[in-house]
Amino acid sequence: MFDALATFLVFDLAGLTPDTPLGAALHFFVMDVAKILTLLTTVIYLMGWLRALLTPERVRAMMKGRSGPGARLMAVGLGAVTPFCSCSSIPLFIGFVEAGIPLGVTLSFLIASPMVNQVAVVVLAGVIGWQMTLVYVVTGLTIAFVGGYVLQAFRLERWVEDYVWAIRMGEALRVEADTSLRARHDYAWGEVRQIVGRIWRFVLIGVGIGAVIHGYVPADFVARIAGDGSLLSVVVAVLAGIPMYSDAVGIIPVAEALLGKGVPLGTVLAFMMAVIALSLPEMLILRKVAKWPLLGIFAAYLAAAFVLVGVLFNALRSYL
What we know:
single chain, 320 residues, mainly alpha, 16 helices, 0% strand
């Protein structure tokens, strides 16, 4: 459907041809923008009906007083179904700490939430297929789960800003939720307006970059830049993702274009994860609640994990 729409607008109506860089780039842009925004709106609305009661405050309440493997599994699971962006990281961080949740569990949630959520999963699957999507989800959740244990071993509590420990949020006022159909519709539509309104620019930027790569950048040039999937090429991909800022949905079209040019799967996965969870803007936001040593250890773990993932999947690419 989306391919047919792009073909009609770009080739039939505008008169461009698919063998020209402009025609190929515009076809890619129109098709992916239509596909991603449609999937984004549909999934957010449907999940809004199911998640009408799952606010950041309720997430905090569900996690309060929990520790151990069960808490980490719950943190990773809640991170996967709650599409909170970096702007939510500070109140969630403070709320989790105040509720007595171990810092390792909190960091597991903060890793999982931006990297894996139901919106990104559906959009990713619609763009590049379920096989890579499953690889991405399993890998992201594993990094978040293991990260809680690894980071907890460094006793990072000493590098949390002092004012965070002094905050007492208190118990949230219990209000009976309105579960009527009208209330759920209003909540779901509000989620669509809020989330789509927040990230549509990233979608256009991401698709635009992907379209330029798809239409104008020769495959052999991309292959030379990306390398052959070696350790060095994966490290470069992770470093290249750090200055960028996007959510999981916005970076998907870029990943699609890179895969189409022959960049190895592991290198693309490492790049995606670095942009989403290791970006410099994300670290600067977290700096408001965490001191530099904590951020350094947090970033080093993520970078090492992403490089390991990239190398591993590049080694296994013949089986994927």
